[in-house]
Batch of 2 targets.
Target 1
Amino acid sequence: MKGITDRLAKYKHALLLIYYPVMIGQFQWLEKRNAQVSHLIQSPLDDFIPFVSIFVVPYVFWFAYVAITLLITGLKDRGEFIRVLMSLYIGMTFCNLIYYLFPHGQPLRVPLTENEPFLFDRLVYFIYSKDTPTNCAPSIHVLFSVACTIGIQRAGCFKDKPWVKISSHIMNVLIVLSTMFIKQHSIIDVALGLAFSVFIYLFVYHIDWPAMWENFLSKANLKKQAADQI
């Protein structure tokens, strides 16, 4: 029992994940609220970007990329886990606020059907059918991908694994490109996502979030001890 208790205490930082479903719920509500929009985001440069459906692979892998980053840093590097998670929380909360105040969409999608002969075209169609072409700028795909890549570069558990760091850079580039190549995002969405990623990085890594978390746990523990003595 003591071993289980010690392990639970070691990974208390996992409690910070409690806001994740709340954040996703906010986005899903906005998807329904902003289903019909009058403001469209696009650039003349989007016309020069071809539709390449094979890029649906890195686009979908994004979900695993985020999950794997949080899992490994959560187990191996508590400090970086907290910083990555704060980057995701701040980034998506900020995006949700923009989506709420400025409902918008994009008109770039390629007309596809569920009977497309090419597998990757059918996969893109599936994504189109599950995700509305709204709430695009900044791109959450870009924000999350950059945040996870920064976390992997900084995590101590990957210090002696250059192949992991190089692979994460490559994956980040592919994910960012995929948002445009499968016509899920305008180049404007991507540019805003990259720009906001810089500000989020400067903010998150300027604050000692791990120390704040430890301070919170310490105060909570002192309050518990005081309550037990009453």
Note: The radius of gyration is 20 Å.
Target 2
Amino acid sequence: MNIAIDVSNTAGFRTGTEEYIEGLVYGLRRVGAQVVGVGRQTSALVPDKPHLGLELRRHPSPLAKWWWEYYGVRRVPRDVELLHIPFMAHPPARLSVPSVVTVHDLIPYRLAAYRKSVKERHYFSHIERSLPYADRIVAISHATFDDMREFFPHLTSKTVVIPNGVHPDFFEELDSQHLMQTARRFGLRRHPRVLYVGGFDERKNVGTLLTAMKTVFSRHRDAELVLVGAKDNLSVRRALVDLGLDSQVLVTPFVSRHDLVALYHSADVFVYPSRYEGFGLPPAQALAVGVPVIASDIPSVREVVQDYGILVDPDSVEAWSAAIEQVLDAPETAHRMVTEGQVYAEEFSWPRIARSYLNVYHDALRGRS
């Protein structure tokens, strides 16, 4: 099967969308599919992405992002049998080939703070008009499917649930020398080490984690917290100074996957305090690496972690500090979590996930025949 994937919304740095596309391409090729990328021609907006492993076919679209999403993506290469749009921006028309859209989350519908501006409201109005034209829709969790049922009930009959996958790098062992080199490069000097990977907007709930860590640090004076993903280091650092935590917390922006895998391996426990997610990829990555996971007890993350980590009330400072200390103070608990979690994480291997996508693609093709 010849599949085109719209890569126009990928960024110059590694984001969740880019991680998803790269993993999907890897998985599809492992199961025998032919995959190309399509994107806008404007190189400043769509640089070539060799790390995605795609042949990028660019099509004329000298205007802005919205033009591509409304019209440009309709120009599917002739040899392509199906177009996969890995985000919600489907054109407001039926395409010449079957189309599959991935819905990662419905945060703007669930949380009003994410649709305040006129531009944002216009964009989501476009989604509401255009999404029905997709032949099939993939929700990345049952929690996202439940949101689809609430906000797009007329589309659930053509929506299926396929979880995100974890890149094979997270399943690989790393040698101790590489881990020591990474620790030196990032200035990691303390143990035990608590790791957070993700964003820093309000729903990520990092403030609750920082408050909980004050208690943890009072009892584990040599511990450190590593925060990965902070775009605005200055504001985060100011918050740490205000809390008196700046000497025991290391903050870094987005890092390469190579470094991220090493940071997971160097951690004694991984924490994920988010209040709302469509899936929750970092906990799945941590399980694959073999790090004990403590995460918010919310529907999507509960799906990912299940019984292989500790789930806590996202807004309970006491629950967070108690759970972190439980793992740090009980090596046998940590060992059991790691052993069982790594076996379970194989369910998130991309070739396994890609086979489910192929079933959806074939179903979309049959729907056009």
Note: The radius of gyration is 21 Å.
